[in-house]
Amino acid sequence: NRFPQHGHYVPQKFADNRIISSKYTVWNFVPKNLFEQFRRVANFYFLIIFLVQLMIDTPTSPITSGLPLFFVITVTAIKQGYEDWLRHKADNEVNGAPVYVVRSGGLVKTRSKNIRVGDIVRVAKDETFPVDLVLLSSDRVDGSCHVTTASLDGETNLKTHVAVPETAVLQSVANLDKLVAVIECQQPEADLYRTADVYMLRLFLFRPLGPESLLLRGARLKNTKEIFGVAVYTGMETKMALNYKSKSQKRSAVEKSMNSFLIIYLIILLFEAILSTILKYAWQAEEKWDEPWYNEKTEHERNSSKVIFISDFLAFLVLYNFIIPISLYVTVEMQKFLGSFFIGWDLDLYHEETNQRAQVNTSDLNEELGQVEYVFTDKTGTLTENEMQFRECSINGIKYQEVNGKLTPEGFPEDSPDGNRHEEELFLKAVCLCHTVQINADQTDGADGPWHANGITAPLEYYASSPDEKALVEAASRGICFYFLILKDRTIVKINAVYKLLHVLEFDPNRRRMSVIVESPSGEKLLFTKGAESSILPRSKSGEIDKTRIHVDEFALKGLRTLCVAYRRFTPEEYQEIGKRLHEARTALQQREERLADVFNFIERDLELLGATGVEDKLQEKVQETIEALRLAGIKVWVLTGDKHETAVSVSLSCGHFHRTMNILELVQHKSDSTCAEQLRHTGTKSIFLSLNRIKEDHVIQHGLVVDGTSLSLALREHEKLFMEVCKNCSAVLCCRMAPLQKAKVVRLLKTSPEKPITLAIGDGANDVSMIQEAHVGIGIMGKEGRQAVRNSDYAIARFKFLSKLLFVHGHFYYIRIATLVQYFFYKNVCFITPQFLYQFFCLFSQQTLYDSVYLTLYNICFTSLPVLIYSLFEQHVHPHVLQSKPVLYRDISKNAHLGFKPFLYWTILGFFHAFVFFYGSYLLMGEDTSLLGNGQMFGNWTFGTLVFTVMVITVTMKMALETHFWTWINHFVTWGSIVFYFIFSLSMKLPFLHTQDMYFVFVQLLSSGSAWFAIILIVVACLFIDVVKKVLYRHLQPTSTEKAQIRFASSVKKVVLESFHHSCVSYVIFTIPQPFLEFWVSPVDSVFQHSRHQCQVWK
Amino acid sequence: GKKNYKADGHPSGGVGVPGGGAVGGGGGGAVKTRKPDNTAFKQQRLPAWQPILTAGTVLPAFFIIGLIFIPIGIGIFVTSNNIREYEIDYTGTEPSSPCNKCLNVSWDSTPPCTCTINFTLEHSFESNVFMYYGLSNFYQNHRRYVKSRDDSQLNGDNSSLLNPSKECEPYRTNEDKPIAPCGAIANSMFNDTLELYRIDNDTRTPITLIKKGIAWWTDKNVKFRNPTGDGNNLTALFQGTTKPVNWPKPVYMLDSEPDNNGFINEDFIVWMRTAALPTFRKLYRLIERKNNLQPTLQAGKYSLDIAYNYPVHSFDGRKRMILSTISWMGGKNPFLGIAYITVGSICFFLGVVLLIIHHKYGNRNTSADIPN
Q1: Do the beta carbons of residue A607 and residue A539 sit within 8 Å?
Q2: Which of A279, A459, A775, B121 pairs with A53 at a CA distance of 20 to 30 A?
Q3: Residue of A946, A940, A141, A986 whose CA lies nearest to A489
Q4: Is the pTM of this model over 0.90?
Q5: DSSP string, A19-43
Q6: Best residue in B336, B342, B352 to probe A by mutation, most A CBs within 10 Å?
Q7: Mutate which of A930, A959, A1058 to test chain B, going by most B C-beta atoms within 10 A?
Q8: Where is composition skewed (Gly residues) in this entry (chain B) (predicted)?
């Protein structure tokens, strides 16, 4: 798309510069939000029920389902509206930011949203770019500027961008105003790292522009006073906006079982409705029941009676529809939304050094954290600090070590042999030249920086996109290298020599190397390459290849990261050809990446190997403990790394992933299918054999498996099953030499295996993104390699060790909370609606409701909603310390244990049982319909329903109380408050203006009956004590480890409490003091616990 | 001067909505600490009571429940047993029954079919006696029936009086006149008349039956009201309406006393409170104890005179007359007492079981180690 420069551009052709991250506007909020909400099955179901109630004559008024539905929809809408309002606010802040634009010969201050394509924008130092700009000029003569893209991708290094050479001189507003030019650019594209093709045509001069002239919105100007640029992509077409992409929805296992429960209840509902309809017609067959003289039908009913079978069925459906818990979804949503705050608030997940707290990007998966079976972790930056320290190098087949800032050859006396001097120098040159490191120094003062004053003394900071490079250059600056070289603009400055940087062949993960082409002071054109040994060694034709390979392996065994360095000299002819090809590829319009890769491959060959470097990456703290804990919790840990086999194994050993005692099976360096299969079979049988032995012997032999990328792809191609079999028998698996997509593939393989385990992927770099997105739960480490992983993750933490708290404490809590929440919701609705169903047997299936419609409406949204919500936010069935120190407890909830078939059946049966007790208890109380009042007067059907309902509200609330282990004042408040509210609400039915209601004074009459009080107490106790007995029996006869831990913890606290009372015969006291009285300590348990742990040891 | 780039260039992690976030925070300046507050709430350390249901904790509760429930149960049971109750089925389905002749009466048979049933009370009824009529197989809880009323009309609303609610169909209008009171419930009002005589040496002494105080006070005084208008002449106030089809006379002629006539007739109000179950009783009359020397109803012979108007045979219904005394907890109802005794005993029994479990397993559990 062409367009003229400012002055005569056509504004309507392009989007304006407004950023819209919000989903709704004031106008479309209601319809759009409603539409989205009703796409949910449950909401849609209730909408249908509501419509049915509106259309046909149903037993309950439309309000009974309309009001809860309205409530649910409103709460969700408020939540979404609030989130959208936040987005609007953020948008407005961005869109309203002041910017300076060149217009009509001067600088005009305007708002960011008013920028149009073609406007020339001035950006000052430390400001962010409001649009994607083509850099026209900066305050520097060469038209360059520095930016940091921290807010885009988190890379903190300074990047140099250059102005269009022809316009670089236009440094004043007046000059720029006269500029007439045409820019031709591609359609907007999202990829931040793909180079955007921009062309500039000016006065018949055709000028291709690379990404170095394009300044992206969101990046920040550094070290440069001001720049001018012309807006090319605005608003939603900027790269940043295009990267807003909404993440794919991940659904948790709990949600899936929730949906299957819904289906089961839907079936129960249909069954009840159909049964009722059939029975109704069976009764109706007889005239005396269908239409006794006292209860005649209307003419209309009589005429339609033959065709209303469907309508009867629908009426029963409406009557029983509350068995599907309407507020389940909204409660779950609130619970997840509010509950996820606790992760961010957790001090234990806060990392002081980097000032990072845990970050929750999606609250949908909280409970999934408690279900993890496989952890896939990246190595660099996840297990390690990603803080590189140069340790050793190998130059021309001789090993050197860094000792006190000096490079000393190994095995030689202090004075190095002079024979190696030349290679040494070349090697160091290569290390110093071949990088993209930026230094940070205030250089806005102009061309002369501090380094010119021979100043290696000034401590400089380096900004590098790769920590390896940084380590190498830092090592160089420590004086190992005689030369101090830095990259300055387009020239590499050396103290005594100036190398001109001609080309940079950037690093990419597929090539696994990067190169620079420089011109030495003597005019020689040199190529320096460094990269993974697998990508350099095959391309080298001379140098000490074999020795270097041995050294590289030795470095790797020490756990060092290795890089090989090589160079190549160009003849002038060669260089010309290279220059031409490079230019062609870089300016290519189509398939530029592929063509560039071809050219790079063409250039980087026939290398002369110089040597290799070994860089140490320190392990993060407590990695070993964390991995051990994960293993204890029954989680299998897989390390997926791009590192060399040897490096990976040594790091695995040092971080406790592999044990010394482990039997390590290797599946590496297989070139062909058949050998790979053979090896697999071999290791497979071996491991299976061993695992059989394992069962016999008490002594556990663990297996570790090492696979590399190529072997893995071979193994996966043909022998997936066999490979999986082997993997499952291994307690630790290490995959090395993995490409990013392979990581994701491994995750997907495990995810889709027959057991469908829950997977978690954790990583810090862009290469982990695919894996993070693939896994059920993706965790980003806020590391040094940008924020790509964090942005694409579901949760982000600062350190690997935080994983244990995140899983064992938060995951466990959230799982327990939501599992109980879901079960309880179904339970309470079974309790709610089953008496209604039973009542039909006593009213000729006439669809008479047992409860008044007010109760039907408010049961779920008022009387029973809060205790379970509060429970699901605050419940801690075991003390967090216990959970974290005993990872075994994690196994108690694995495989969705609390939402399996058995617990579901238990809750359902309990619900039905309670419902039967409510109904038949009240029924028998009424007995032959004797009076329950002291004055002999009688109750009616509404009083009966109210009795059942009262018993139900109390029982259901008390059931929640029985489930609660952690009674904060909030729990007390909502639990007792709910019951009190129910009573107050029901008593309000006696208000005079309600006298035409069926319920008028019914509740007061009910409470004025002594029998009713006794019945309520009796039925509640009868319902609950069976549940209590079940709980106690299970706890004593088949205790889970969690329950044991509860008791242990409680008794340890109790001992401490007792200790303060009695100094002697404590064991005697424990048995004689009635236990419940001891349960009543209301104390900040933490302090007691700290104390008690100490005590426990003494006591043993 | 020098700038602290370490702070400045620090990734502004997670400040904005991920992926949204827009442009990063303000330039330069000290980085705000993102350290979470160390409050009990945010750290999930609110002080809390953490009960655990173990045999040890629930044991005493079970014993206490058992010990409380059993005496309560016995008390209730005894109370219920002390209540005198006498019931007569006067449906007349058996050919031997005196009311057999009336079995197939219809609503408008004049004069009404009458029958007399003699009975003997073995024990005297000491305190106030409550006289009920009971119906079986009568579905007052049928949905079509329950909703077939107009509460506004019954509350004396004049517009509803002349224009009753649609819910009253098909008992809303008759011959184009609105029915007052409308609806199936009112239309099917129980209209047998029961009279009780004491037979003492062949002399029949009528027993005074009090017809007030049988309905809820709020029903009588708030929920049900006669239409208002000029004067107190009910006939005039119900002008323009017609009687329910099955009634022999209009609503303003239900009783001779003005404060028990029209919508506030207590027999009517009692009937309008629909029963929960198809077998039900409704309070019919009160028999007050006259003095402390004599029981309300002495043991002896009695006769019940019935004006048999209410047909129940067509739906296999039964009609009963019940005489009952009342305790503080209502009429005779052995269920509650038995249930209390049962639940209490089970609780006590389970308490014993748990005690055994507690002694057998209690120690093991607290000392057992969690496998690592």
Answers
A1: yes
A2: A279
A3: A141
A4: no
A5: ----S--TTTHHHHHHHHHHTSHHH
A6: B336
A7: A930
A8: 11-30
